[in-house]
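Q&A FORM
Asked by: J.P.
Topic: structure of (-)-isopiperitenol/(-)-carveol dehydrogenase, mitochondrial-like

PROVIDED:
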Amino acid sequence: MAEPASRMSKMEGKVAIITGGASGIGEATARLFADNAVRAVVIADIQDEKGQRVAESIGLNRCSYIHCDVADEEQVIYLVNQTVSKHGRLDVMFSNAGIMSGSDQTLLELDLAELDRVFAVNARGTAACVKQAARVMLERRVRGSIVCTASVAASRGGCWRTDYIMSKHAVVGLVRSASRQLGEHGIRVNCVSPSAVATSLQCRSEEELEEVRRIYEQNTSLKGIELTVRHVADAVLFLASDDSLFVTGHDLAVDGGLTKLPDEKK
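REPLIED BY: S.T.
REPLY: Here is the structure written out as tokens.
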């Protein structure tokens, strides 16, 4: 009987792009891909110094950085074309770049200009990444994997950050539609939906971060474990690799059972 593929070979020979790869979930995923024998991983972000440092620490022979604001499709096109020009193909797109609301954004006080800003990155930017990745995968006849970062906010309503919640619902809708449209070409499209993760982009202060951690810890069924960016990266690795060859259109919750609790306990 053949031995199962080792963990170290899950991304062997693959070329991947990670948007929002300079920090948080994106950085953790880039490092995990590198640990799993990826041929090349391209980090895209607007945090140039951080992105370059991450690429250098992983090793410039396998990791590079490109400035990209996903809200601008022309920059996404450049990112994808440069990756294919340099590496000859694209196997994995992890569309991870996203932003939070700048304020609480309740419905009656909804600032539509702020909503447009959030949607430009979270919804429109994700759509651009999926579209352009699918384009080159089709051109090169690559049966690739596209993974997007959604959120537990995409499966429920909320008392605040209405624009953010709306934008993440849009990501799940995109994944469901894209998976059906691209499946005939062998391209898989999935998303991960984490609950509160300790990242600098999600909270405006350490105090807010601790408060979010406390609230979510109380409202999960899985006790004694705090969600980290590595847990989310592990889920992305599964969806990006051949371990999930027959998985598409799936929203993988990484939330300690939060979305499965009865409403009165959430």
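FOLLOW-UP: The chain is about 40% helix and 15% strand.
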